[in-house]
Structure formats: structure tokens, C-alpha cells
């Protein structure tokens, strides 16, 4: 024979259980959206490997030319339009795209901008110089070459990705 016990719940126990349950639901209702807000950008796929159309191959010459291109960048919850520049030239079938950012202090370099240093990239901030292929000239402030963009050519259009160090 099964004995039944008398399970009476006092008012104090009932209030304790009820308030604990309601408090738990309220805490979960506040914490879960905050956790989702913090974790969601980490779970999004990164667009760092995206390639951006920059120029037609027919526009390229053996002399480096400046090309500006824009793309949409997403940082967490903030989306912005970013404009970058590349110095692009073609020698035979080889296409080279260099970043205009000096590797010394981040100033912008220009091609053939100084009469004393023809056919070189020149940084006006501290006199940094780079050869046509981006190699830093020994004895000048930069200690590494200009960064090179990842390049793809599709249907006669040059696409650029991320700029990477040449070292």
C-alpha cells in the first residue's frame, strides 16, 4: 500500500517560490537580449576577403596610376563607406597594386612627386622613398616595402582585396 504524505505549502514557501520564479524570468528577460547584442557580431561572417572592382585592365599602363575605390565596411553594428587608394601598373601580364601608405609613419606616398627622385614613390613627411615595385630605398626612413594588394582579374576588370606586407 502506498502511503500518501500530506504536502502542505506554507504561505512563506509559496511567496518564496513565486518571487524566485518571477525574478528569474525578469533576469532572463534582461540578460538574454544583452548577451545576444554582445555575441551577434562575432557570429556574423567576416567580409575581409571581399574583392572590390577598381579599374579596367585597358586603363593600366607601365607607369603607376592612382585609383580610388570605395566599399562598405561593417564594424559590429556600424556600417560605413570606406574610400581607399591604390597605385596600379602593368608590366607585361603582371599587374601590381601598391598601397599608398608609407610604412614609416603612415603618410601618403605619391609617384614621381619629387623632381630630385624621378620614377620613385616619395613620402613628403620624412623623405621616405620607394622603388616602382614598392621596395624601400636603403638609407631612407621606411624599414619595409609598401604593402601589396591581393589582385584578381575577371572579365577585363581588376579587383583588389586586402593590402598585405611584402615581407
Automatic annotation (TrEMBL):
Q: Indicate yes or no for the key word Disulfide bond.
A: yes
Cofactor(s) demanded: [2Fe-2S] cluster
Keyword annotations of the record:
2Fe-2S, Disulfide bond, Electron transport, Iron, Iron-sulfur, Membrane, Metal-binding, Oxidoreductase, Transmembrane, Transmembrane helix, Transport
Q: Where are the transmembrane segments?
A: 14-35
Q: Which SUPFAM superfamilies match?
A: ISP domain
A GO term from the CC aspect: membrane
Q: Which domain of life is it from?
A: Bacteria
The record's annotation in InterPro entries points to:
Rieske_2Fe-2S, Rieske_2Fe-2S_sf, Rieske_Fe-S_prot, Rieske_Fe-S_prot_C, TAT_signal
Coiled-coil blocks? none
Q: Which residue ranges does the record assign to the Rieske domain? A: 64-160
In terms of CDD domains, this protein maps to: Rieske
Q: Name one GO molecular function term.
A: monooxygenase activity
Family listed: Belongs to the Rieske iron-sulfur protein family.
Function field: Component of the menaquinol:cytochrome c reductase complex. The Rieske protein is a high potential 2Fe-2S protein.
Quaternary state and interactors = The main subunits of the menaquinol:cytochrome c complex are a Rieske-type iron-sulfur protein (QcrA), a cytochrome b (QcrB) and a cytochrome c (QcrC).
From the Swiss-Prot or TrEMBL record, give the protein name.
Menaquinol:cytochrome c reductase iron-sulfur subunit
User: Which organism encodes this protein?
Assistant: Alteribacillus iranensis
